[in-house]
Specification:
9-stranded mixed β-sheet, D-Maltodextrin-Binding Protein, domain 2, 19% strand, single chain, 36% helix
C-alpha cells in the first residue's frame, strides 16, 4: 500500500514539473454586449480578445456606430456597455448613465498627402483661429487664407454625419458643439479618413487610431496629420513636431504637449451599476490588468489614482 501511495505521489510530482501548476477551471460564463464610439472600438476589441484568453466561455459582442449610439444603447438597456468618446451630458446622467473612464486619446486634423499646399501645411501648421475659420465660421475657403501661402487651392471641408465623440471633441476645441461644425458629412471614422484620402483638397479630422497604422505606427498612406501651431508663431517648432509616429503623438498627449481638447478621456457607460455580473467583472479587469494593453494599442493610460477612483464606482 505504501509503495502504491509513493508511486501516485511521484506521478503527481512528475506531472507538476512537466505541465506546471494545475490551473483552477474557469467557471465564468455569460455574454457581454458593447456598442458605440469608433474611437474606443479598436481598444475594446483588443481588450475582448485578451479577456477571452482568460475566460474562454464568455462571449463578447462589440459594434461601432458612434458615441451617440453607444450612449443611447446603454441608457436604454440595449447593451451592457456603451462606448463613449466625450463627456457625459447632465441629461444623460439623469437617465442613469454611469461613466467609467478607461483610457485616453485625441482627435487630429487630417489632409490628403497630395494637397498642393502640403509643404506649407506641415511646416507652418494650423493655428486654432485658422481651424475655427475653416470649420466654424467658414471664412477661410482656400489655403492662401488659412496659411498665408501662395497656393490658391480651395479647401474641401469634411465633418462627421453621425453623432460622435470625435466631432463633439473637435468642436469643443473651438468652444462649440458638433452641430456648429461645417463640412460635407461623412459617416464614421473610417469613412471620413477615406473621404480625405480620395480628395486631394480635402481636410477632416479623425481619432488618432484611424490616422495612424497600428502595426507600422506611422501615418496611414494617403493622408497626413495636420500639426497644430500651438504658440501661434506661424511655424511648427521642434517641441510642436510630434506627429511622425503614433508613439511620438501618444507621448505628447500623455505629458500635455498636445492640447486638451482635442485630447480627451474615453468611457465605458452603463445604466447605473452594471446588473450583468460578467460585464461588471470585465469592466473591473479593464481598469486593472487590462491597462497593460492600452499603450501598445495606441492609446494613453490614465493615472493610477484615476483608475482606482473609477473602480470604486463598481
Amino acid at each position: 500500500m505504501k509503495k502504491i501511495t509513493r508511486f501516485l505521489l511521484l506521478g503527481v510530482l512528475i506531472l507538476t514539473i512537466v505541465a506546471g501548476p494545475v490551473r483552477a477551471q474557469d467557471n465564468m460564463q455569460g455574454k457581454i454586449t458593447l456598442s458605440g464610439a469608433w474611437a474606443l472600438y479598436p481598444m475594446a476589441v483588443k481588450w475582448a480578445a485578451e479577456y477571452k484568453k482568460i475566460h474562454p466561455s464568455v462571449k463578447i459582442d462589440i459594434s461601432a456606430g458612434g458615441a451617440g449610439k453607444g450612449m443611447t444603447d446603454a441608457v436604454s438597456g440595449l447593451v451592457d456597455i456603451g462606448m463613449v468618446s466625450r463627456e457625459v451630458y447632465p441629461e444623460e446622467l439623469k437617465k442613469g448613465a454611469l461613466a467609467f473612464a478607461v483610457a485616453k486619446d485625441a482627435v487630429v486634423a487630417v489632409v490628403n498627402e497630395k494637397n498642393p499646399a502640403i509643404n506649407d501645411i506641415l511646416t507652418k501648421g494650423l493655428k486654432k483661429d485658422a481651424a475655427s475659420n475653416i470649420w466654424i465660421s467658414g471664412k477661410y475657403k482656400s489655403w492662401s487664407q488659412a496659411l498665408t501661402t501662395s497656393s490658391k487651392a480651395p479647401i474641401h471641408v469634411y465633418t462627421r454625419s453621425d453623432a460622435c465623440g470625435a466631432a463633439e471633441t473637435w468642436a469643443k476645441f473651438f468652444a462649440k458643439k458638433q452641430e456648429d461644425l461645417l463640412g460635407s458629412g461623412v459617416y464614421g471614422d473610417p469613412g471620413l479618413a477615406l473621404a480625405v484620402k480620395k480628395d486631394q483638397l480635402g481636410i477632416g479630422y479623425n481619432n488618432i487610431g484611424y490616422a495612424f497604422d497600428q502595426t507600422t505606427r506611422k501615418q496611414i498612406a494617403g493622408i497626413r496629420v495636420v500639426p497644430i501651431d500651438i504658440n501661434n508663431n506661424g511655424k511648427i517648432d521642434a517641441d510642436e513636431n510630434f506627429y511622425n509616429t503614433l508613439d511620438e503623438l501618444v507621448k505628447a498627449i500623455a505629458i500635455g504637449k498636445y492640447p486638451s481638447p482635442p485630447a480627451r478621456d474615453l468611457y465605458f457607460v452603463t445604466k447605473g451599476k452594471p446588473s450583468n455580473p460578467v460585464a461588471a467583472a470585465f469592466i473591473r479587469w479593464v481598469l486593472t490588468d487590462g491597462q497593460k494593453y492600452v499603450q501598445e494599442s495606441g492609446y494613453i493610460n490614465l493615472s493610477a489614482e484615476k483608475l482606482t477612483g473609477e473602480s470604486k464606482k463598481l
